[in-house]
Design a protein that fits this description.
Layout (H helix, E strand, L loop, with lengths): L1 H7 L13 E5 L2 E5 L7 E6 L6 H19 L2 E7 L3 H14 L14 E3 L4 H5 L14 E6 L5 E7 L7 H17 L13 E2 L10 H4 L6 E5 L2 E4 L3 H8 L4
Helix pairs in contact: 5-7
């Protein structure tokens, strides 16, 4: 019973903690994380295995959206517990043979980590015994320029990710940091934002500096203000 409990225990970092450091071989050469990504946002994500259909659809979508993520100031970094040659063969197959939802000749240029020892996956709690003892779940870690984990999402092996939501999370995290606000349910750039109450976690810069502007208050604890779409995107998108 004790051995079973030890086997089922999964150690994983938490939101607000430093992202575990590692060195690894990838399809784009060696990576020293987080040192190689200093002052950048990183989306670190895992997939269960190469040459599987759900993962193939996801990698094509990630590659197709890579420019959007890059323009929003984030780098993509993938991982599975397969070997380097398997990664290379799979990515070549995607480019040469797979056409899906209008996407074809898709070349994956972001790094894909080789993790046959499951060292990196274990550090990030990506191996879930309830799902599989030998495959990484579909984990997504948003890591800020200071190397701190800001968001964690886990999907089961059978469910592909929502990429519009992943992009929204990145924009939302950066907007919350830039403007010192919180974001309500289903927020998108251009929607009203929440002005946190003074004394709450992360006291709002706007209130402290008297710059909150015109607010709509539904009660003492729930106030919103306008923040137009262009203002948000001009701040959070990476400009050349």
């Amino acid at each position: 019973m004790e051995n079973l409990q030890e086997k089922q225990h999964v150690s994983m970092p938490r939101i607000g903690e430093p992202a575990p450091a590692f060195k690894a071989i990838t399809t784009q050469g060696e990576v020293n994380f987080p040192a190689d990504y200093k002052d950048k946002w990183v989306i670190l994500f895992s997939h269960p295995a190469d040459f599987t259909p759900v993962c193939t659809s996801e990698f094509m979508t990630f590659a197709n959206m890579e420019k959007e993520f890059n323009e929003a100031g984030a780098e993509l970094l993938g991982l599975s517990v397969d070997g380097l040659y398997s990664h290379i063969a799979w990515l070549r197959t995607i480019k040469d043979k797979i056409e899906y939802k209008g996407m074809k000749n898709v070349e994956v240029t972001f790094p894909l980590i080789e993790d046959i020892t499951m060292d990196v996956a274990s550090k990030y709690g990506m191996i879930m015994p309830g799902e599989s003892d030998t495959k990484a779940v579909r984990a997504v870690f948003f890591i800020d320029p200071k190397g701190v984990i800001r968001t964690i999402i886990y999907y089961p092996l059978s469910l592909g990710r929502n990429f519009k939501e992943l992009y929204r999370i990145l924009i939302g995290l950066k907007a919350a940091d830039e403007f010192g606000v919180a974001l309500p349910a289903d927020w998108h750039p251009g929607d009203d934002v929440i002005v946190p109450t003074a004394g709450s976690c992360g006291v709002a810069k706007d209130r402290m500096e008297g710059k909150e502007g015109e607010m709509t208050c539904y009660d003492w604890f729930f106030c919103t203000r306008k923040l137009d779409k262009d203002t948000v995107l001009n701040k959070v998108l990476k400009k050349k």
